[in-house]
Amino acid sequence: xxxxxxxxxxxxxxxxxxxxxxxxxxxxxxxxxxxxxxxxxxxxxxxxxxxxxxxxxxxxxxxxxxxxxxxxxxxxxxxxxxxxxxxxxxxxxxxxxxxxxxxxxxxxxxxxxxxxxxxxxxxxxxxxxxxxxxxxxxxxxxxxxxxxxxxxxxxxxxxxxxxxxxxxxxxxxxxxxxxxxxxxxxxxxxxxxxxxxxxxxxxxxxxxxxxxxxxxxxxxxxxxxxxxxxxxxxxxxxxxxxxxxxxxxxxxxxxxxxxxxxxxxxxxxxxxxxxxxxxxxxxxxxxxxxxxxxxxxxxxxxxxxxxxxxxxxxxxxxxxxxxxxxxxxxxxxxxxxxxxxxxxxxxxxxxxxxxxxxxxxxxxxxxxxxxxxxxxxxxxxxxxxxxxxxxxxxxxxxxxxxxxxxxxxxxxxxxxxxxxxxxxxxxxxxxxxxxx
Amino acid sequence: xxxxxxxxxxxxxxxxxxxxxxxxxxxxxxxxxxxxxxxxxxxxxxxxxxxxxxxxxxxxxxxxxxxxxxxxxxxxxxxxxxxxxxxxxxxxxxxxxxxxxxxxxxxxxxxxxxxxxxxxxxxxxxxxxxxxxxxxxxxxxxxxxxxxxxxxxxxxxxxxxxxxxxxxxxxxxxxxxxxxxxxxxxxxxxxxxxxxxxxxxxxxxxxxxxxxxxxxxxxxxxxxxxxxxxxxxxxxxxxxxxxxxxxxxxxxxxxxxxxxxxxxxxxxxxxxxxxxxxxxxxxxxxxxxxxxxxxxxxxxxxxxxxxxxxxxxxxxxxxxxxxxxxxxxxxxxxxxxxxxxxxxxxxxxxxxxxxxxxxxxxxxxxxxxxxxxxxxxxxxxxxxxxxxxxxxxxxxxxxxxxxxxxxxxxxxxxxxxxxxxxxxxxxxxxxxxxxxxxxxxxxx
Lengths: 436, 444
Description:
Chain A: Pfam families: BPD_transp_2 (PF02653). Chain A: Its main location: membrane. The complex is a heterodimer. Chain A is about 70% helix and about 5% strand. By secondary structure, chain A is mainly α. Chain A has 2 domains: about 30-130, no CATH class; about 140-385, ABC transporter involved in vitamin B12 uptake, BtuC (Orthogonal Bundle). Chain A has a 3-stranded mixed beta sheet. A two-stranded antiparallel sheet of chain A has the order 4-5. In chain B, helix 10 (about 190-220) crosses helix 11. Chain B contains 20 helices and no strands. Chain B has a domain at about 145-380.
C-alpha cells in the first residue's frame, strides 16, 4: 500500500526501461534558450549602443619570455563576429537538445562564454585610446575572488558534513577584524592570518555549539551570528580601533611574490604567478579540500555524516564529533578569506567591510552544487565579474556604470536558472542529529 | 503494493542511486528528502508522573526561557556598556583601593544606559507633559512598522519552505514603484493617489519576489541565490534611476535622490501632526491580521504550510507545488513591499535614495525567526525590535553608548530563545518532560 500511495514517481521499484524513456523526454531546452537570450542581448546591445573604433587588447607585459604586441582590431567587426559565432553555437545547442536529445556539452558552452566575453570586451573597449589589459583582468579577478572562494570552500565542507552555514559572512567579517587587530599589534601579516583563521574557527564553534549540541535550527543560528558579529565588530571598531587607529588598525600586508620563471609566461604568468601567498594558498586549499572530501577516509566520513547520519552512526562513525571537526576546519578556511580584506587588500579594518561577500560565497556554494572545485570556480567567476566592471570603467565603456555593476548578478541569475537548474544539497544538511 | 515495508526502504535508496537527476530533476531530491525524513526526530522521553510534570512544565516552559534569554542578553549588554563608559574605566584603575567606586560607576553607567533605552523606546519621564512623554512610544511603533511588514514577508516564505533573503531588493523595488507614483503622478485626489502608490508598491514587491518563486518553480534555481542576486540587481537599478536626470532624480539636483512625495500620496499621521507615527502602522496591523487568516484559515495558507513541511506529501495530496511556490513568493514580496511603501510614503517623505531599505530586509529575517514565523509572533518581535531601534538611538544620543550594542543584545536574545536547552542549562531550569537528572546529559 505504501509503495503506491507515497510513490507517484516511477523510479523506485520500476525496471530500467521507463526511466530510460524519461531521460529521452526530459532533456530540457533551457540551456539553448539561455544561450539564445544571451546572444540576443549582446546583439541588441551592439545595435542600441553602436560604438565605433578600434579596440586594443594588451596581452603581454614587459618581462615576459617573449613580448606579444598590443592587438588592435576594429571593435564592431570583432563584436559582430562574436555574435555570429555565438549564434552558431546556439544553433548547435538547439540541434543537440531537440534533434539528438543530448545535453549541451561543455565544448559548446565554454567557447560560447569565451567568445561572448571577447565580443563584449571588443564592443566595450572600442574607440578607447587605452589598452584593455587582459592580464589585469585576470589578475584582479583572482584577487577579488579570494574571500568568496575561501568562504565557499568553508561552506562546502560544513554543508557536506550536514551543517548549513549561513554565517560565512560573520566568519569573514570577524576574521577581517581580528587579522587587522593582531596584524597591527604584532606587525606581522602571518600572525594576522593565523588570527583570522582562529576567528573563523571561533564563529564555527559557536555555530557548532548551538546547531550541533543544542540542535537549534541552523539557519537561525547562522542569520543571528551574522547580526551578532556585525554588532560586535562595529562596536569594537568604534570603541577600540578608531581611537587607536595607528597602533591597532594599520596592519602590514602580504607582498606580492612572483614565482620564478612561471611569472614570465605571457598573459597568465603575471596574472596567476605574481600574487600574494594567500592566492597560492587558495589553489592549494581548493585542491586539498577536493582531495580530502573525495579521496580520504575523513572525507568519506564527512560526506556520510552529511548524507545519512543514522547510517554513519550505525557503522561506528561519531556523527557529532565528525561534524564539529569539519565545521571547525571550515571555519579556519573561511577565516583565511576574511584575512584578505585586511592583510592582503587595504591593510585596515572598516565597519561591515565584507559587504555581503559571505552571501555571495553562499551563492557560490549552491552554484557549485556543493562541490569544492565547482564552488571555487563559481567564486572565481564572481570575482571576474566584479573586476570586469572596474576594467571597463578604465577604458570608458559607453554603458552606465550601474549596469556594469549589475551585470555579474544578472549573468549569475541566468546561469543558475538556465544552466545549473535544480541543485540538491547533502540530504541531512540542516538537520541536527541525535543519537537514539 | 505487495512488498513489505523494509523492502520499500531498500528500494528507496536503490532508486536514489539509479535515479537520473538530469532526467527527472525533482525525483532524486524527493527521494533524498524521503530518506532524510526517516531520521529520528528529537523526541523527549515522556514522563509518567503527571503532577510533577505539570510543575516542571511551568518552569520548563517557554516564558521562563524567554525571560532567561532576555536576562542573559541584558547581562552581556551591560558588560559592553561598562566597557565603553569612561567613568567605569577611570574607577577600575584604582579598583583594589576603592572597589565601591567601580561598582558605583558600573551602576551609574548600566542603569543610565538601560533607563535611556527605556525612555527612548516607551515613555520619557523627563518630559513635561504626557503628550511629549509618550512620544518615544510612537517612535517605537513607527520603527516597528516596516519590521513587522517585512518580517511577515520572510515568515510566510519560511512557512512555505522558502528562505527569502531578498527583503532588501523587494523593499527597494517597491519603494521605487510607490515613490515614482507618489511624486510622479499628478492631479489625483488624496486617497486615490495614496491607494495607487500603495498598490504599485505592493505589486512591484510581489513581482520582484515572484521572479524568485517563478525561477524556483520552473527551473529549480535555488531561491537563496536568486533572491541574493535580485538584491544587488534592484540596488543597482535604483542607483541608475536615481543618478539619471528625467527618471527618479529630483530635477535640478545632482544628488542621487528623488523629489519629495506629493501631499496626496503621503500616509497621514495616525495620532496627530506632532508625532511621526503614520497610518502605515495600521496597515502593518492589518497585514498581521490578513496573514493570520491566510496562514491559519485559508486553503492557500494550508497549501503553503503543507509544501513547506513536506513538498512530496503535498504533491501526493494534489497540491500544485510549483504554483504554491510562486504564490507564496508573491505574497511574501507584497508583504515586504508594504515595508518599502511605508518607508517612502510615511517615514521618509522628503525624497529617498538607494539606502531607503535601511537594512530592514535583513532585520526582517531576525524578526521572523524571533517571532517563530507566526504572524502574531512577528508582530511582537517587530515591536520589540522597533523599541530597540528607537531606544538605541536615544541611548546613543543621551549616554554616548554606541548603537551597535543594541544589535548584539538583539541577536543574543534570538540566539538564546532559539536554544532553550542552553538557557535551561545556565539557569538550571528543568527539561520539559524529563526526569530529574536527565538534564545533566544536555548541559554537559
